[in-house]
Structure formats: C-alpha cells, structure tokens
Write a structure and sequence with these properties.
Mean pLDDT: 94
CATH architecture of the domain at 7-174 and 208-238 and 278-285: 3-Layer(aba) Sandwich
CATH topology of the domain at 7-174 and 208-238 and 278-285: Rossmann fold
Radius of gyration: 19 Å
Distance between the termini: 37 Å
Number of strands: 14
Largest sheet: 7 strands, parallel
C-alpha cells in the first residue's frame, strides 16, 4: 500500500459508483475519506478498512458543520452523494432537492478556490435529442425528469465556481459491491437470467451506456489531467453503444439465446429519455473505455447467478 499522494473526500462513497471508485483511489495511493449515510444498509467498503489511508464517516452531506470540517482537510472533492434515478427522486421531492442541489450549493460555498472538484452528472440532461443528431457538450440541455434537472443545475453550480470537471455519464452498467438491478442494462440482463423474458415499452428509445469500472477510470483520468481538463463538462460513454432498448435486448440475446422479449403496443416508459451521444471530447484527452457492453453482459450473467432478490435497487 502506497503512501498518500493526495487527500480525497468522496461523499456518497459507499454507493454503486463509489464502491468501485474508492478501492481504485486507494490502490493508486490516495488518502480517501468517505462520507455516507448508508441508507441502503450496505457494507460494500469493508475491504477498504485494511488501508491506513482510508477513513469513513457516517453522516449527511447536507450537514453544514460536518461538511465544513471534512472539506477543509482534503485537496480533491468527489460529490457522489445524491438520490439517483427518476423513480427514487419522484418518491421524495424535498429530499431530492436538498441532497442533489442544495448540498451541491453548500459544497461549492465551503470549498476554497484551490480545491479541485470532480462531479458526476448524467447525460440524461439531454432529454429527447434530435433524430439522428449526436448530443455534444455544446448541445442544449433539456432534462425532462426531476433527477435530470437537479443534476444539471448542480453541474452549473460547480462549473460556475470554477476549478471543477463534470462528467456527463451515460447509463451505467456492471456489477458493484453495492449492486443496483434497476439500471437499464442490469435490469434487462436480470430479467433475461431470472425470467428469460421481458416486455419493453417504447423500444426504439435510444441511450448511451458505460461500464461502472470505466466510471472509476475516468475519475482517475480527470485527477491525473486536472489542469488541462478543468472547467469543462465531458460526455463519458461507449462510442459503439448508442443503442435502443430493442438493440440492447438483441445484444443480451447473443449471450442468452433463450431470452425472449416483446415490445408492448400500449403503455409508455416513465423515463422518456431518447438521444445519441458523442464522446469525442473525452476521447481527445486520451481517455479510452476499457470495458465493452458484451463484457458487462457476461459479467452480469455471472453476478445474477449470485444475486437473486430486490434488495439491490434504489426503489
């Protein structure tokens, strides 16, 4: 285990993303403090406790006194703490606004100008894109869910503050110690493994996709190249994975031939996102995803032979 080469505070660090990112930060020699309220009763960071460079605080990112004490001791802040996904956000609008937006405003105020912030937002901010036209970082943001709106507003807070990088993440997939089944690829593979069938609403809607381990890798990339990347947003996803739901099901079917899917003639998807995304800007910085959709599907099939219950969702 290396000596610390920088101090990082990760809020929400025991979640789906953080449970992959935090061990990678520690392996790369960073001193990491995680703040999390452990709302899902997860124990996903137990393996990190062996590191002297790891510390964990059980608390709330909206607590100003707590945050002020934590922020001042760190060089880099990674705010992962959020209510994630349209369904969860719609269940508690007040908590969504205070956690996703007001806590971001608080953090921007507490950080000095010298401290670096790397913030994950979502490319769901593009809402419904123009047919056949790629969304770039210059494309107008038109979020259509409360979740999307709060993340877009928080992104603006950090970019306006300066000394920040924001990553507009594609829909994430893959296994994590704090597993989520309710993400689109994960959900469809789970259905393919357990039910061998799925009913799809509005199957032509397209999205971009990204493996959870590539999320960790892009944060490390951003830290290492912060000075030349700062004060900009970056789309992060797989260039060959701007796929409709039908195309996603067909990709899963290659691995699980017994999987059948049916597009419903009536009904609609509560999450109306439909867009294709260009990731050229992040690729131009030297970052390249390492995990393909096929790799993720194979991984998830194995994972869902282990996990067989609904604890692993956000709602």
């Amino acid at each position: 285990m290396k000596d610390s080469q920088g101090k990082i505070l990760v809020t929400g660090g025991a979640g789906y993303l953080g449970s992959i990112l935090v061990p990678e930060l520690l392996k790369n020699g960073y001193e990491v403090t995680v703040l999390d309220n452990f709302m899902f009763r997860q124990n996903s960071l137990m393996d990190c406790c062996v590191y002297d460079t790891f510390s964990v605080v059980r608390g709330d990112c909206r607590d100003e006194n707590l945050m002020a004490g934590l922020v001042k001791d760190n060089d880099i802040i990674i705010p992962l703490a959020a209510l994630v996904g349209a369904p969860l956000c719609n269940q508690d609008i007040t908590a969504t606004m205070s956690t996703n937006l007001e806590a971001s405003r608080l953090l921007a105020r507490l950080c000095s100008k010298e401290q670096c912030i790397l913030y994950p937002t979502t490319n769901s901010g593009y809402g419904i894109g123009e047919k056949g036209k790629f969304c770039t970082e210059e494309t107008q943001l038109r979020p259509i869910s409360l979740y999307g709106r709060t993340k877009v507003d928080a992104e603006n807070i950090f970019l306006d503050r300066g000394n920040a990088i924001t990553f507009r993440l594609a829909t994430v997939f893959g296994t994590s110690p704090r597993m989520r089944i309710d993400l689109l690829v994960n959900d469809f593979v789970y259905r393919a493994v357990t039910d061998k069938a799925a009913v799809i609403f509005e199957g032509y809607f397209k999205r971009n996709f990204l493996h959870v381990r590539d999320v960790a890798r892009v944060f490390l990339h951003g830290i290492e190249h912060f000075e030349r990347m700062k004060d900009e947003p970056y789309n992060v996803g797989l260039e060959d994975a701007n796929l409709s739901k039908i195309e996603l099901c067909q990709a899963i079917q290659k691995h699980l031939p017994n999987f059948t899917f049916l597009e419903a003639a009536v009904g609609e998807d509560p999450d109306k996102r439909d867009y294709i995304v260009s990731n050229e800007k992040i690729l131009s910085t030297g970052f390249k995803p390492a995990f393909s959709l096929d790799m993720g599907i194979r991984e998830l099939i194995k994972g869902f032979n282990i996990v067989r219950n609904s604890v692993y969702t956000n709602v």
